[in-house]
Each structure stands twice: as structure tokens, then as C-alpha cells.
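Protocol step 4 of 6: structure prediction from sequence.
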Amino acid sequence: MAPTRVGIIGTGTIANSHATALRGYPGGQIVAVFDVLGDRARDYAEKWNVPTVCGSLDELLARGYVDAVIVCTPPFAHAEPTMKALEAGKHVLCEKPFALDPHEAERMVRTAERAGKFLACASGRNRCSAAQRKAHAMMASGELGDVYHVRWSRWRFRGRPGHHIFPESAWFLDQRRAGGGAMMDIAVYQIDTVLWLLGNPRVTSVMASMRQITEEPPAGGVKQDVEDHVVIMVSCEGGKSGIIETAWVANVKGADGFFVFGTKAGLRFDPLTKITAVPVDESSGLQRMPWMGGESFRSIEEQVLLAPDNYSDDFGSITQQFVDGVAAGRQPYTPGRDALEVTRIIDAAYRSVRSGAMVALA
């Protein structure tokens, strides 16, 4: 199977991650690059041994030997190159967040369907980890029963982009360019995972709370008008639900937690552990308390994976999954339709914050 020949659009920090994934990988090769900052594109091409630096997006898309592109621009600049590439006959992997609003995301997905090309999104990159793959397989097989709730809390003690980390990327703090703060940077991944492990049910409502931590503003006069702290609750058809919590500036450690609740068994991550209820009987040797009913249970915990939760070497990164899918002619692992649903929830969460009320989704 011939390798997928890839064009990179935008050569900022995340573009290096994709190049790292494809370095020496037989399934894909970066053959062309474009950035509105020409010097940065040339530096990237030299660093990663990319043979062609294009002077415009149209020039890159006109290269017939480019099979697919990876859009690595800031969020406000995702839609145009994605749709142009699809219309030019290229498959696309778009970085997260997919789009700044659902209308934009819908246009991107419809363009892909009309062009007959694959569209994938990096908001689903956690699906490539060993633990999430195993958890999803357990959910899909019915081993957990009906998965009805997923909760993921993921906190950074101090990790605000453009300030504590990636100081050169102050655009993270600019709502116009980034679309939002911790929501677009971290929660976007969690939303994708929560829905995926619930079986992608239809979301019926969203309630959210957010806060900007103004007590510690960015240094150097950098303007911030996006949130540091995010809490979201999603309600879905069939009584399913999910809770997502995250922050750039949490001021706490040891509060992370990732849980899947099913009618037969539950899961706790890090390490991935299956938790099952078993009846307590006299032979167990456990003392029955006076207040216990006729049916009492204790938990059995079984570690499901010996590998770390984030292990992915046996499955590849999202970049490798994308190029392999293109080469095989199959839908990549993280389809644009799923990213559209994530975008709808993000939009509803911001509307919930503005209104102070739950937002119902049709």
C-alpha cells in the first residue's frame, strides 16, 4: 500500500506533533507545506526535511501528488482551508477545535460529503489511547451493561497557554482567534470522549459554568478574554448523562478522575480498572451490619490493562490513523460528523453561561 502524501497547512507548535508522528512512519509522508508566515514554513521544511514550501494555499492544493492535508492553523482559520482542500479533492485532518460555531462545522462536514472525501478531526485523538479503546470495546460489547453516565475531571495546577506554557502562543487567550479558553483547549477532547463512551447518544440539553481566573492575569500586558475554568453537564436521550470539568488554573492537585458508569459494571481510569458488584453471603466472612438489607454487595476491582492508559504504540497516533485510513480508503477513526456534535455542545455551553440557564438542543 503506497504511503499517503500529506500537505501541512500552518506550521505552529501542533504541526511539529504531526511531523513527529510521521517521521519514519511508512504509512505517510509530508511532501509540501504552507504557512502565511513564509519564514516559519521554510524553517519547518528544513527541520522536517519537507521537499516543497508553497507560497500560497492554492499552490499547495494544486499539487496533484498531495493526497491529504492536515490543517494546523489557529481555530479561527480552520474552516476556509479545510473546505478549500476538500473541494480540491484532498482528504483532511483538521486540528481541534473543529470550528468556532455549529454553522461553520456543518458547512465543513457537508463540503466533505459533497466532495466524497474523508474529513477527520483531532478533537478525537484520545480515542487512540489503549485505555479508551478498551473501554469503548467493553461498552460496545455490552460487558458494562447500559453505560448511562461518564464523568471526566482533568485539572491543570498551572497551565495557561500563552502564560505558564507555550508563551509564544498568546493567541490561545484571544477569544476572536481561539474561540474560547480551557473549553477549546482541553474540554473539547473530554466532550468527544464522554459522548463516544456513552455510545454517541443524541444530546438533549447542556448546562455549563465558567470562570476566568482574573486573580493571576497573564504577564507582559497580554490580553485575555477567555475562560480558565469549565464545568459542563450534558443530558442525553435514554437518561444518559456526562460531566466534564477542567481548568488551566486550578490551584489544586490530585483531583483528576475519569469514570464510566454501567448497569453491569463500571470503569475507573489510570489504571483502567473494572468494578463489579458481587453479593455478600455468609461464606465471604464479611460481617453483616444490622442496617444491611437482604441483598448486600461488595465491589470486586480488576485492572483491565497492564499498559499505561495513554499507551498508543500498538495503535498509532491520530496522525497515523488518518494516513492509514486514507490509504486504505476507509473513514478515519475520528470523523467530522462527531466533531460537529462536539461543536454543538460547546456552542450550547457558552450559551448556557451567557443565559445562566440550561440550553435545550433539538
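Step 5 (inspection) to follow. The chain has a mean pLDDT of 93.
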